[in-house]
Model the fold of this input.
Amino acid sequence: MQKIDVAGLDAIIQRLKQRGFIVIGPTIKDGAIVYNEVSGHKDLPAGWTDEHNAGSYRLLKREDGAFFGYVVGPQSWKKYLFPPTLTLFTVRRNGKGLEIGDGNNPKPRDGRQEQSKAQTPKYAFLGIRSCELHAIGIHDKIFSNGEFVNAHYKALREQIFLVAVNCGRGGGTCFCTSMNTGPKATKGFDIVLTEITNELGHYFVVETGSERGVELLSKIPHQPAADVDRESAERIVQLAAQEMGRSMETENIKQLLMENLDHPLWDEVGRRCLTCANCTMVCPTCFCSTVEDVTDLTGRQAERRRRWDSCFTMDFSYIHGGSIRPSAKARYRQWLTHKLGNWIDQFGTSGCVGCGRCITWCPVGIDITEEIHALRTNTKAENASTSS
Done:
């Protein structure tokens, strides 16, 4: 482990910029922590934290000047790796012929889709948390390492540099400890920082997770971390784990869901759910999308676009004759059973990383940890009643 000060943090940002990376980090905008391009440590939300509860979020001032003293905001990093809207190709009228353009998408070559690195933005994510690293790992399985490769995602992902930050506090809707995805980052990063603000000063304990991380750190002024620094860093992560505002029992969770598809609790949550799709928009792993064709008013140019969609929209499950999930109950049940159950069969992992965003940003405060707890409790009570 090594140790850097605030100037060292700024040096990391400047080095990455010099190497052609667009550094994306936490900033404050519209009363929330949002990810945006940063040019130095002064762009970071120093001295701010966020308070989370079901259907509730607000920023609060901290007593110190911590840069990463928040939990998570409404955005996830999929905004950059799997953007909300992507032009797949364009068609332009040229006299009596047509010109086909590639839009934002890689050009076809030899039956495959590829994109030169020179055309692809080089992102460096600064401040990414462990739960979000796990979310990116899930997308890697789906978009980069599966049978069907998403060329746009892969081209972005291959160049990305990840500067993670271990969580210094647990949020009111966080439950990453239940999902084994945090609060300490253990893999998937180039560099990970643990921010410390105490009587010894404001500094960071640094670990590297790749050769690129080692090489970058070698260019930054640093010194070996002392035992007291290591102990402080470990204590901070332990406190964050103890502060988790939620928990979820995941044992046999798929079986629990599949055996209770007709449970009355689905009716109850269906009456509350607005099917607004907020939960899927803020979720770092949800990736449902649709394709649409648009034409300009002159009729000279058309585009095919991919854009985010959600299993909560009526049209998402539309087939000839109508939607196969017309009710809020059916759509919520589909989302939860897929996210926590069938996702495991498809991708070998749960689709939830315990970030709690879906709880915080649900307008009516629906809490998936409470729904699972209620389903488990009612099922146990019903089984006990039947056996007696």
